[in-house]
Structures are given as C-alpha cells and as structure tokens.
Inverse folding.
C-alpha cells in the first residue's frame, strides 16, 4: 500500500506543479472526503470554517462512501473522511488509514419519499406494497439499501421494487423526475429536495439509524487543520447546521 | 512487423527496419497504454474464485440480459441507422451538415446525461413518454425495453458514422446505372447499394454492439437496475465493486471473454474475403 500511496502523492504533486500552482506560497488546504448525503451541510460548514480561519481553504470531494473509502485506501491524498455508515469507516480503519478513533457526529433516519403532495396517500411502509405504485430502493450493497432492508424486515413488509438504485441520490432522482411513485431515502435528502417531493415518516425508521463517523486520516497533508475541522463539525455550531439539514444528534452516551 | 526471415517477404517489403522510429515509438507506447490495464486485470484477477462466480445464477442472468439487449439494440440501430446514413450520404437538403453534427451528439454526451435526457423525453412524465403512457399504457423506464432504448441511443451514432463513411467511399454510379435500367431508388438501394456497403454495415454493427454491451450510465439512469430485468453486466459489475471488488473483476472477465469470443467469431465470418 505504501509505495502506491507515495506514487499517488508524486502524481498529484506533478499535476499541481503542471497546473501552475507552483511559485507562490500555497494556502493550507484541508481536503475532506465526505458522503454524498453531507453535501449541503458540509458545504455550509466549510464556508464557516474558512471564515473563522482566514487563509485556510476547505476542499470537498462528495461521493458514495464506498467509492471514497476505496480512494483513500488506494492512496488518494485526503485529510478528513466522513462516512455515511460505520462499516465503511471500519474498512478504512482496518487498512490503517485513520489516525485516532473515528467519532460519530450525526445520525440519519430513513423516510418514505413520495411525489409532491403525496397523491397516492402513502402513510406507512405497508402502503408501498400496493400494486399500482412504482417503488425504487437503494441496492443492498450501499448503506441506504442495507438500512431499507432492515426497516422492511422489522415491518414485515415484502416489496417488489422496480429498481435497486446504486446510491441514495439516484433513488431520490427517480421520484423527483416522477418515474417512480415512492422510494426509501434519508430524511436529509428529502429536506434537500425541497418541495419537489414529499417525505413521510414511519416508526420503523428508528430501528435502522445510520451513524456518520468522521476521522482525520493517517496520511493527512494538513493534520492540524484537519483536526480543527473535525472539532468544528462536532462543535455546537456544527451540530446546529447538521440539525438544520435534518440530521439527528449522535446517540446519547456515544463517544 | 511480419516478414522478418529471408525469403518470406513477398510483395512490398514491410520490415521493422523501415518503420520510422518517430512512428514506431509512439505506436508501441499506444499499444502498451491500451493493453496494460487489461493485463493488470488478468494478473490481479481472483482466478481461484472464478469457478464459484461462474456458477452463480445471477451472473448468467445478467450476461443473458446483456447479450439479449445489446443484440436487440443493434438490430434497432440497423433498422433506423442505415436509412439515416443513406439520407445523410446520398441526398442534399438544407441543414444536412447540422443534422449530421446532431447525429453525433450522443457520442460526446456523458451517458448519464443521455439517460436523464431519455427520461425527460420518454419517461413516464416525459415529453413523448407521457403520451405513450396515456394512449397505450406503455412506460419504458424500469423495463428491458428501456435498456434497449438506452443502449440504442448511445450506440446508433457509431453505426451511422461507419455506414455513412462507407457510402461516401462507394461509387454512386452503380446506383445510377441501376436507376437508368429502370430500378426504383429503393430497389437500387436494396439490390445494389446494400450488398456494396455490407462490410461497412457489418463493421458499424459490431461497433454499435460492443458499445451497447458495455453501456452503463444511460442504462442505469433511464432503466434502473433490477436483476434479470434491467441489471446488465456493467451494472452488476459496478454494484459488486461497492463491497466485493474481487467479484467485480471476475464478472468483468466474463464479460470480456464473451465479447472477445463473439467479436472474433463475427470478424471471421463477415470479413472473410472482403480483404480486410
């Protein structure tokens, strides 16, 4: 793994030099790899962090947690990783990618997302079984799919979805484009989609909450600033922004 | 690069020594560039797991769907694309160059965007899709027909460009001769032009088929992903990549082996005697 990382760093350095960044003293840049569902809240937090630390820049790479984790273990030079579930973070930790224990900073809960105004009057998971409804779920290989599977098992509902989507945002898109009538996505996705969709809460969602861990990476080029960013995400202000985006607080008593 | 031994060079000599190194070096680099990732795939492939992967019914389900949809999409491309290529090559109308440029748009469009465009046009709430739903109760997304539509959309430009190029190179006087002998323009096209350009049509069909077989972005966006119905091999590979990269490599090898076998068989049959 080591030589691969060194290579990646060398290639990145070469690209940086070639793209004309050489010559001037570069501002410290914190590179954050974050799950796609954190896009809205982390973008806000990044801007606030830059305001509080003049001269520091925060750069984000948002994507599926698994893809980002593969990038990190493959040697992508990042400072911070925020994953949408603990299993994915554990994969990075096992590969020796994190420095220190990852800490859970937020949790997310599934919602049923329906067409605007909920024209089919979906009230529960059981309603999704109606034959006239086209339902899409996340594939069970991604965190939202695993959570969907868990809540359906709890509710003892067997669905026949029309598609298993590769991530939560494409499941949401299918409903936004009115191709599907309903999907299971995170509460934060429903909120970010505004009034193009309507969210429906269901009690079983509490049995499969996703915990979002964050960690400074072992090979972080800016470990100090990275640590400050993680602390900022976990601060009262960070929690306020995350709550506003629809996230839940970490479980009480969690580290 | 052949004809190294003495006496083996019949006809124009093509010994390696005559190839200018200004061409040979980048050519070799190009070859390595194309083959290296393939070699890495083969070297790092989990060969021990391969028999287990091949035994799984999901693999065969995805492979069967891939072959079926790519072949149907190619047929659709032929039915619509060959006449389109003929119109572009043989007729003159205002805006022909613009139409020709528009035909190639799916080539440069990121396939995912192509998939979204297809949804906006042919989806349940799309411009035309809404009418299909109202009048016939037909919706394309999430169906195998939707996979075929997505694949044909990205593959057709390859066929049209290939056939149009062949048509331009073909001598139009054969068609004109047929016309002076009393054949209608359509008969001339069917009896004279089509046999003349058969190799170009075949090459275009092979290109389109290969493109359709590997199609990912437009398919997953427009048709979704459901095992046996819309989950083709590239989609299965992508989903496997999320938590089992070894399985993804194994699946890719299956797809690769099948496509090489099919393309090899077609090449032998179609281009024999054409002088390729």
């Amino acid at each position: 793994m080591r030589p691969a990382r060194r290579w990646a760093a060398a290639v990145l350095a070469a690209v940086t030099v070639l793209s004309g960044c050489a010559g001037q003293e570069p501002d410290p840049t914190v590179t954050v790899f974050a799950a796609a569902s954190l896009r809205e809240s982390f973008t806000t937090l990044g801007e606030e962090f830059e305001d509080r630390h003049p001269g520091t820049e925060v750069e984000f790479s948002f994507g599926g947690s698994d893809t980002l984790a593969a990038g990190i273990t493959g040697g992508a030079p990042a400072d911070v990783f925020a994953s949408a579930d603990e299993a994915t973070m554990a994969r990075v930790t096992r590969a020796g990618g994190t420095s220190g224990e990852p800490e859970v900073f937020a949790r997310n809960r599934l919602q049923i997302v329906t067409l605007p105004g909920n024209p089919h009057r979906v009230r529960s998971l059981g309603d999704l079984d109606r034959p006239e409804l086209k339902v899409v779920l996340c594939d069970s290989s991604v965190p939202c799919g695993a959570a969907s599977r868990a809540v359906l098992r709890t509710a003892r509902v067997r669905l026949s979805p029309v598609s298993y989507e590769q991530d939560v945002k494409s499941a949401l898109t299918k409903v936004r484009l009115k191709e599907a009538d309903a999907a299971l996505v995170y509460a934060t996705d429903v909120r970010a989609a505004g009034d193009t969709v309507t969210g429906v809460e269901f009690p079983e969602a509490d049995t499969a909450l996703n915990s979002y861990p964050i960690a400074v990476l072992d090979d972080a080029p800016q470990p100090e600033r990275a640590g400050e960013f993680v602390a900022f995400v976990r601060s009262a202000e960070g929690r306020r922004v995350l709550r506003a985006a629809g996230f839940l607080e970490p479980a009480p008593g969690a580290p | 690069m052949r004809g190294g031994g003495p006496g083996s060079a019949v006809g124009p000599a093509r010994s390696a020594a005559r190839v200018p190194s200004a061409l040979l070096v980048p050519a070799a680099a190009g070859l390595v560039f194309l083959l290296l990732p393939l070699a890495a795939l083969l070297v790092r492939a989990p060969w021990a797991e391969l028999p287990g992967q091949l035994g799984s019914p999901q693999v065969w389900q995805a492979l069967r769907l891939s072959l079926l949809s790519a072949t149907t999409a190619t047929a659709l491309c032929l039915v619509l694309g060959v006449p389109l290529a003929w119109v572009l090559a043989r007729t003159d109308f205002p805006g022909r160059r613009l139409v020709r440029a528009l035909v190639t748009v799916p080539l440069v469009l990121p396939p995912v965007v192509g998939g979204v465009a297809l949804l906006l046009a042919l989806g349940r709430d799309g411009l035309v899709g809404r009418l299909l739903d109202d009048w016939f109760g037909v919706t394309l997304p999430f169906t195998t027909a939707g996979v075929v539509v997505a694949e044909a959309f990205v593959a057709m430009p390859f066929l049209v460009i290939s056939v149009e190029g062949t048509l331009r190179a073909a001598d139009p006087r054969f068609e004109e001769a047929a016309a002076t002998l009393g054949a209608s323009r359509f008969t001339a096209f069917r009896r004279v032009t089509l046999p003349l350009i058969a190799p170009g049509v075949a090459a275009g069909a092979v290109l389109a088929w290969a493109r359709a077989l590997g199609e990912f972005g437009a398919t997953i966006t427009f048709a979704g992903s459901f095992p046996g119905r819309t989950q083709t091999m590239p989609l299965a590979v992508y989903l496997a990549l999320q938590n089992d990269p070894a399985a993804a490599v194994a699946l890719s090898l299956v797809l690769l082996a099948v496509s090489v076998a099919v393309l090899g068989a077609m090449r032998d049959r179609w281009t024999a005697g054409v002088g390729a």
Summary: Chain A has two domains: 2-106+212-244, 110-208.
